[in-house]
Amino acid sequence: MRESDSMVKKISIMILTILILCMFIACQSKEDDIPNQVDEGTPAWQRLAQEPITFDWYINYSWYTTPWGQNAVSKAITAETGVSIKFIVPTGNESQKLDAMIASDILPDFITLGWWEEQAQTMINKDMVYALNILADQYDPYFYQVTNEQVINWYTKEDGNIYAYPNSAYTPEDFKSGINIGSNQNFLVRKDIYEAIGSPDMTTIEGFKNAVIEAHKMFPYVNGEPLIPIGSDEFYDEGCNSFDKYLQNFLAVPFEIDGKYNHRYIDEDYLNWLKMFRELNEMGYLSKEIFVDKRVQLEEKLAKGRYFCLLYQGSDIQASQKILNAKNPESIYIAVDGPKNSKGDDPTLPSAGINGWTLTFISKNCKDPERAIAFLSYLISEEGQKKVFLGVEGVTYDYVDGKYVIKPHVLELLNTNRYEYDRLYGADDAYWMLQNNVMQDQWLEIRDPLTHSLWEWTKPYTVYTSQYDIVFEADSSFAQIDKKIKLEWGKTLPLLLLAKSEEEFDEIFKNYKDKIYALGFEQLMEEYTRLMQDSKRKLGLE
User: What's the farthest any 2 CA atoms get from each other in the chain?
Assistant: First the structure.
């Protein structure tokens, strides 16, 4: 063989080898891009249940205290999934705690916070949380079988990904279906005091004022402690729900006027009611305690029955109601007709909407994303919902004649001592992070008549308001303007209530209006309107 022929042969072999090698690499690369092959019909939590793991879960509420691993429900979930939870809650200011974790990049495995919190968008923008759909595609397609398609679509971002899943979400279709949907907002009065003063009409400014004065006159003290004539939710840096949002809802202040988003804080009826509260403060009927008390102090005073009346959330007085009922059933809080506007319109009380209440994220610091998405799917599934709501069959409930029946002694404890119930059993959404109220409705029975009656009272007045729940992109110019205006209201509200005269009230409010207009209020309202219309289209509410 000539030398040239030999060389050609060697070159040909080299080229062939290279081609084969390239084909192998290409194939390997394609295989690497293919997600793990999993059985779409088998939940991943079942496949992984034999491998114990403990996740850290941050809950952005300082009041949440239910531990994991001590009660029947958490033990059963761990036995079923292999997952244990270590809850982390802030002490003090929630926003500061979460901001610090974000800044230090020390987010735990799971994070749960309100859907409206700006940190939700910040974590997405900073690429600190997983896209749940990508994790589901790779590890657990069962996720798509247990989630609501419309909720998924609502929370899908422009990049096509969904980064968190809500609890307590209702779609417009749920609302139209006639299922058990009410509002969580009530005007509450202490039953025995209210009846003792003649069960007066408190829907008008004069009627409300006179009732408060009479209640304090007849009951200056309750159980040896001063009566607090008017209670409220805690004041925070953006205002106070009782004196702004809840009051506006009872006054049926419109969310929009002539197709434009309405800034409800400048409504005339609303301002007249604030002036009445200012007058009551001038007369000594607005306790200074309400301006500084946090939720812990509020609950302590509710449990002692120290408030005559308050605008508050019915579900948040469960524990207090049970304590009061055990001592004296006549001292509980009941829902009655509260503040109304000058036309006497019924209140417009928001239901939970498609946003839900809180969002749960999986952080990119998560020690095992596969187990995390599998556990999330479990909690969202019917099996998981039964556990967190009904509890453990044979322990908290029995299945009798096609119905789920809570054991009598368990029901008795639930209706008398919520703290002890959570310690022993932990059902009834003690672990509420992924609760599905629509699914749970099929198992619902009147367990706690004390709080059920509050829920029932709201049903005729409940409206769907998700289209008005606007959240701006974090760090956008509109988000910054919105935040400044909300903080300005947070500073203004206490000043209005504590004003020494109506003239001072008017001057304070004028300064507020001047400041927000200078901040870009008109442009902000235009953007609110645009986003409101987008939401209507997305929800099919045009």
Answer: 122
